[in-house]
Amino acid sequence: MRPSGRAPDEMRAITIETGFTKHAEGSCLISFGDTRVLCTASVEERIPPWLRGKGQGWVTGEYSMLPRATHTRGSREAAKGKQSGRTQEIQRLIGRSLRAVCDMEKLGERQITLDCDVIQADGGTRTASISGAWVALRMAVNKLMESGAIKDDPLTAKIAAISCGIYNGTPVLDLDYDEDSNADADANFVLIEGGQIAEAQATAEGATYDEEGLLRLLRLAQMGCGEIFKAQEAAVK
Amino acid sequence: MRPSGRAPDEMRAITIETGFTKHAEGSCLISFGDTRVLCTASVEERIPPWLRGKGQGWVTGEYSMLPRATHTRGSREAAKGKQSGRTQEIQRLIGRSLRAVCDMEKLGERQITLDCDVIQADGGTRTASISGAWVALRMAVNKLMESGAIKDDPLTAKIAAISCGIYNGTPVLDLDYDEDSNADADANFVLIEGGQIAEAQATAEGATYDEEGLLRLLRLAQMGCGEIFKAQEAAVK
Amino acid sequence: MRPSGRAPDEMRAITIETGFTKHAEGSCLISFGDTRVLCTASVEERIPPWLRGKGQGWVTGEYSMLPRATHTRGSREAAKGKQSGRTQEIQRLIGRSLRAVCDMEKLGERQITLDCDVIQADGGTRTASISGAWVALRMAVNKLMESGAIKDDPLTAKIAAISCGIYNGTPVLDLDYDEDSNADADANFVLIEGGQIAEAQATAEGATYDEEGLLRLLRLAQMGCGEIFKAQEAAVK
Amino acid sequence: MRPSGRAPDEMRAITIETGFTKHAEGSCLISFGDTRVLCTASVEERIPPWLRGKGQGWVTGEYSMLPRATHTRGSREAAKGKQSGRTQEIQRLIGRSLRAVCDMEKLGERQITLDCDVIQADGGTRTASISGAWVALRMAVNKLMESGAIKDDPLTAKIAAISCGIYNGTPVLDLDYDEDSNADADANFVLIEGGQIAEAQATAEGATYDEEGLLRLLRLAQMGCGEIFKAQEAAVK
Amino acid sequence: MRPSGRAPDEMRAITIETGFTKHAEGSCLISFGDTRVLCTASVEERIPPWLRGKGQGWVTGEYSMLPRATHTRGSREAAKGKQSGRTQEIQRLIGRSLRAVCDMEKLGERQITLDCDVIQADGGTRTASISGAWVALRMAVNKLMESGAIKDDPLTAKIAAISCGIYNGTPVLDLDYDEDSNADADANFVLIEGGQIAEAQATAEGATYDEEGLLRLLRLAQMGCGEIFKAQEAAVK
Amino acid sequence: MRPSGRAPDEMRAITIETGFTKHAEGSCLISFGDTRVLCTASVEERIPPWLRGKGQGWVTGEYSMLPRATHTRGSREAAKGKQSGRTQEIQRLIGRSLRAVCDMEKLGERQITLDCDVIQADGGTRTASISGAWVALRMAVNKLMESGAIKDDPLTAKIAAISCGIYNGTPVLDLDYDEDSNADADANFVLIEGGQIAEAQATAEGATYDEEGLLRLLRLAQMGCGEIFKAQEAAVK
């Protein structure tokens, strides 16, 4: 049924290699099958101007694809002189998601930037980015707590994201590129450990879907994020 | 309960003034309470390079806020030299939504651009834009059919969008600015007449929400879009 | 003679609808026939860096055309990433004109920005912008005086602008688009109530003109501005 | 009276050194006192896309100030990544002026670009640019005629430009920087040999002026351009 | 002597992991100690406009640092909207170097882009980029030859690059970041297997150097490149 | 042998006209044959943010070609909105070279910008820029010392630059455009009076070169810079 031969509710293999680069306060290379994203967390003792003097911190995200992460080479955004709408949409989503599980007052007046750079793309790069960014953030916050810079843990829960969609009429979990480019509907869910939803985005492509379809996608996402939470747990131990 | 005194499932007054400008093939000024957006549809007998020779058309959207549409003056994107991530996200949503109800082969090798310019903002500008853009698109397509340029109607259904959210713990419909800036969750639904979903986006702000919350927001949106479909019907008659 | 059937010294109908938007400190929708411009005045309690500490204020203008204000859709300057030379020339003219009738010391250390957004264009958009911007400025200054923020009225006079040109050899007043695109000469005058000139710009297009021609255009402009001053007076009462 | 000790109708010394650079088809270094502008005319056998196939040519202008042409160093527009509104306004004026004396059909399907680069500034750089650009254009056209590329002379007349203004209540000709920065009114006239006006621009600065003032400025400009026409004549012989 | 304890002529460990990403026609992750660069070669069946119809191909390079490749986070060039002078200088060097060993006629009318993205930086990123880019290029060209698209091998030799410098008065090979930031002179050599020089760049920092110094640096580079050629040979076998 | 008929070690005529513009603290027009560059030194009593409070100054360079400095007109970087990689590479080289002979502590907390604008190009514009910039810098520093702003001379030596290359197999000095575009190797040396090297850059074009070739080029450059040092000495006396 699925090009990869996976069952509808079957995820691709997840691996999380922490400490992939040495300078960042937290880093990991996360893989969902052939999708590989390098996530780093950088702590800076400064905050955006509009937050100064409010006794709180900030968490933000940036996202990019290496030019040849994809089947055919894409042009480099730095060379074109601007980031695409898609890039901006994704990095806004990454920042918003991670802020949903971080208490800004406990973080204190500092900023953590989560850079998600896609080394290789095979569908689901934005959800892998969020899932990996949490690992990098967790590591960076641990380091701040160990050094005594932060007293109380600002991270309130794990957060993870997964794509799902309707492929040939069937709801499926964790779309790869072949499925993604032919899906009838395409959804991304960002879920918090414990059952809460941080973000739900579902888009019809070609065919549309109804309330029932939305619910079935959400339930697949809940299953998928359960597996990611376990992989995150193992990675940061 | 609500700052405006509205009931949780009560929309603001909707007005649609068609033919607001004379040059565009279709145009309307749509109001949801104090939110007012000028929507125009421009037909051009050319298509994006990547579509050439495929015998189909294209529908795209652009969005902008006038600098003083808001409480305090925002800087002009043309002067800053780039569109914000928010602007790009919204205009991608507008285009995607309208394409969901347009058969590109019946449209033929031409492009229709839907410009949504916010004259005055009081919450819900992106959903008013989509709802008004459909009216402008309908008018432009009518004109193409009357002139004989198009034979079969490419528009497959009405499409409308509405925001809803959780305000003080209660799901409410059609948020105005006061509610929007204090909501626990903020959702936008783009619905197709007949019950299908084109797009669902729900974001936790501060508090998160669960499956039950998502469903209640969707049902409010279905009620709201019902009213918008009626207003669209009246406008294009 | 004239495509519109007007007499050489006949203006189009002028209407000025004040309070067209609610957030701005002053606003109006001004129409010269089918040319319609939304003018807003925004007061900000900050001044450009080079004026700090000098005990005076600043008045500046910005100008834009909505993409489909014109016969064929123009590309959006925010999307192209820069303002055209024409746009910049016009907004410099708007700011300079309004500053000619405003005493910057009486205004105090604040800035008023006049945004002129062309909703529909049919010739004469820059002159309608200046004429409408004065109304918005007058309203904003009135509000500052009522609140006690300003003591002495900084506005020294009314200011208005009108185009005129030589069409088929005859000097004519208030060119619409059809005339403008075929005129032999094209002039814009910004006049101050009482007979003084703030700005005169006359350009030969195809045919050139001489001293006599320049004078005849100026006299037409004086007639036209007389009518605009009356419309402004009625609008701000 | 005047800071320079000149009489009100006295020009600064004009010099025109032709052939200042060797690659351009026409070039000169024009000086009005301490204002020095390098003007080059470059012929290219291609035309802008919107003119293709119409059997006519195009003349356009570009303008720039070297960073240290002025009293204090200005930042380089290439480094800032955009041309100022003032630069764009001036280069539009240069192109428009030269086109007023060039028959585009006789020019044939080619483009001549007039680059005006200000080496040293002391007031009147835009008018020196236009006056010098005509010399460079004349030389380039002569070369095209000598080579047989053009048969009939496309240049219909000489064109020259001069600034004048009201300084301490007195109309004066050819303002230098000290006068320019303190003038009550500032005007630029572009005149065609024989008495016709191509462009008149007069701006009040501080004080305003009336019809009589405008006429007196125009007459000074006519005197000044008379001298420039002689210098141009001598230069191109 | 050296912060790392290495002998003056001692290189860091070199590793080259080929096939690091799957979409590119050639790819490797090259490491010089802690400096790690992902190099990919992308083949496209199109050439720059100025080469069309000349029967030859093109090889070009692009370079970027991930934001947190360095000790402190650098801002993302795509977000700033332009590439730094340093980035442009390096990518010009990469392209020029690889073209020095590629016969453009044998390559045929196609372009190969070498993307060098620095994953982790510890000095010598540009030289690692060139050395790794050759491996990626070799793999891509092999693929083109295997498929029959190219008949004769266009690569004429191996090419490699290494940095060296004068540190505390002593010429040393393969500078890491600690040395690089304190060196008296800093040189990069691009050498061709067999003894020829493609590029020599030596810059004094603080102290200057003389002919003797330049020669000693060149000889260190020759030793270093010898080792790189062996690593390249092993990698592409 | 050489297109110009010069001997392999023969320089073109060098002229340095100091005080070419009046506003800059130091200026000269330097010519190497037909290559002419206007160099100005501008003193500003401010320093880059990252140097504040360190008790030292800064020297930086900017470089540009006038559009028609070359055989065919190049497009203006200010109009394109960005500086080319070549421009940035050259201006970084200019700044680095001049800093090599300036003691930043003796200079004090001020910045000197060296603007090098190429009026006419015939090969060797970057080396003429550096050689002329030293003259402008020397003049500006003299003025600072005469006024008492600086006590001890911050300039430690003369610095000059020259190109050389391998043309038809023979090492030649001071390449003009005809040679430059056909050279087998192309080198630029920046030398300090007394024999030290500030910068060496040698690039193979087509043919490569070896250690012996590099040395021969360096020796030619030493001869050439000897002549430039004399011309600089005469110019600043």
Oligomer state equals: homohexamer
Most extensive interface, chain pair and sizes: A-E, 34 and 34 residues
Helix content of chain A: 25-40%
Could you list the spans of chain A in which at least 5 consecutive residues all have pLDDT below 50?
none
Strand arrangement within the widest β-sheet of chain A reads: 1-2-3-5-4
* Radius of gyration based on Cα positions of chain A: 18 Å
Shape of chain A: globular
- Proportion of strand residues of chain A: 25-35%
Look at the helices and sheets of chain A and give the structural class: alpha+beta
What's the helix count of chain A? 6
What is the terminal-to-terminal distance of chain A? 37 Å
Mean pLDDT of chain A, rounded to whole units? Answer: 96
Major pleated sheet of chain A:
5 strands, mixed
Count of DSSP strands of chain A? 9
Helix and strand sequence of chain A: EEEEHHHEHEEHEEH
Domain Exoribonuclease phosphorolytic (chains A, B, C, D, E, F): 10-140, 159-222
Catalytic activity (chains A, B, C, D, E, F): tRNA(n+1) + phosphate = tRNA(n) + a ribonucleoside 5'-diphosphate
Keywords (chains A, B, C, D, E, F): Nucleotidyltransferase, RNA-binding, rRNA processing, Transferase, tRNA processing, tRNA-binding
EC number (chains A, B, C, D, E, F): 2.7.7.56
